[in-house]
Write a structure and sequence with these properties.
Blueprint: H1 9-12, H2 17-29, E1 34-38, E2 44-47, H3 49-55, H4 67-70, H5 74-85, E3 90-95, E4 103-113, E5 116-125, H6 127-162, H7 172-200, E6 209-212, H8 213-223, H9 225-230, E7 234-237, E8 244-247, H10 249-265, E9 272-280, E10 283-290, H11 297-300, H12 312-318, H13 324-334, E11 338-344, E12 348-356
Parallel strand pairs: 7-9
Antiparallel strand pairs: 1-2, 1-5, 3-4, 4-5, 6-8, 9-10, 10-12, 11-12
Helix pairs in contact: 6-7, 7-13, 8-10, 10-13
Length: about 350
């Protein structure tokens, strides 16, 4: 392809090589994707700002340098070489070994400019798309697993009942209890998926009003008292009776239920769950603390991801959908706040909802 063929005759005929290269550079500068043009020696003859940002290091000027100095990828070098020598286009997948692990689909094509054979490469970044695809695949894998486990149990016990277990007076009610419990697990999972989907799509709003926090906390503790009693967990409300915060009371209670329920499930037998309020720096910080075993540091940065579990075996034992903390994170952000976690092995864990103060 000759550049002059792509331009109006009046523009292409204005002058010689300098004008052609100026026009080429102007075209590159209007392109959002990173673009690199190399000469026959595979030196970078032209590039644009996105290319400098993507491939430049330590303010290094990339033009005039060999392609191998800027990007170390044999397939990419071969594609540029073939474009110049064989006048063939090629498509290459490029992954940069950086902290961001950036990925590109690269289209390399021959280009002739003022009698010189060059190669031009268009770098279409796919990092975000690939990341979203990875999240989608992980979500589908997790949801398939989470639904398959209770469904397998339900089918097994239904078959047992059909094969004569219905007449087993000693065990038939136990079989039905297992079916009911697993059905409830599936129902809770689907409900949480729908809830999280609504929140993430922006279809959930919050009605911010003054809320007496101590009363809201006590309502949640009362609702979970039976579950706490099963594990001999003591529930402590240390929020001052007069404390008032700004929140959507329904969504606030939803966050508290998720955090306190987790604090009960992952606590030691006979442990304590404490809810406190700290007001600092114009923020209301609601802390839910347990006296459990704590969370390993490598799990803390992923604890709010959907379906992520620090202890999968324990999670299966105590139940739960694996979506509760993700829901808390999104609801806190809807309030203009955040949720964080602090944990010490052997000493327990504290989850903190940080909300704007009045």
């Amino acid at each position: 392809m000759q550049l002059s063929e792509t331009l109006p005759a009046s523009t292409a005929d204005l002058s010689g090589p300098a004008a052609s290269r100026t026009v080429l550079q102007k075209i590159l500068d209007t392109t959002r994707e990173a673009v690199i043009v190399t000469d026959a020696d595979l030196r970078i003859a032209h590039s644009n700002m996105p290319a400098a940002v993507a491939f430049g290091r330590d303010n290094l000027e990339i033009e005039g340098r060999r392609l191998s100095e800027i990007i170390r990828d044999l397939d990419l070098h071969e594609a540029f070489r073939k474009a110049i020598v064989s006048h063939r286009s090629d498509d290459v997948r490029l992954e940069l070994p950086t902290a961001e692990n950036r990925k590109f689909d690269v289209h390399v094509a021959p280009i002739e400019l003022d009698g010189s054979d060059l190669a031009i490469g268009f770098f279409y970044e796919t990092t975000q798309i690939d990341r979203l695809e990875s999240v989608r695949q992980e979500f589908l894998s997790n949801i398939s697993h989470e639904l398959r486990t209770p469904l397998t149990s339900i089918l097994a016990f239904v078959e047992t009942l059909e094969d004569g277990g219905i007449d087993d007076k000693e065990n038939n009610l136990r079989f039905l209890e297992v079916i009911r419990r697993n059905s409830e697990r599936m129902h809770s999972l689907i409900a949480d998926i729908l809830e999280l989907s609504l929140i993430e799509s922006g279809n959930v709003s919050v009605d911010i009003r003054e809320v007496r926090l101590s009363s809201a906390v006590q309502d949640v503790l009362n609702s979970l008292s039976a579950k706490a009693a099963e594990r001999e967990i003591t529930l402590v409300n240390q929020v001052p009776a007069e404390a008032v915060i700004l929140a959507d009371v329904v969504r606030l209670e939803q966050m508290l239920v998720n955090l306190i329920d987790n604090a009960i499930k992952f606590n030691r037998l006979g442990g304590i769950v404490t809810v406190e309020l700290e007001i600092a720096g114009g923020r209301d910080r609601i802390a839910v603390t347990d006296t459990g075993e704590g969370i390993l540091p490598e799990h803390l940065k992923r604890i709010f991801e959907r379906f992520y579990r620090a202890d999968r075996a324990r999670s299966r034992e105590v139940g739960g959908t694996g979506l509760g903390l993700a829901i808390v994170k999104h609801l806190a952000r809807l309030h203009g706040g955040e949720v964080s976690v602090n944990s010490a092995l052997g000493s327990g864990t504290t989850f903190t909802i940080d909300l704007p103060a009045r």
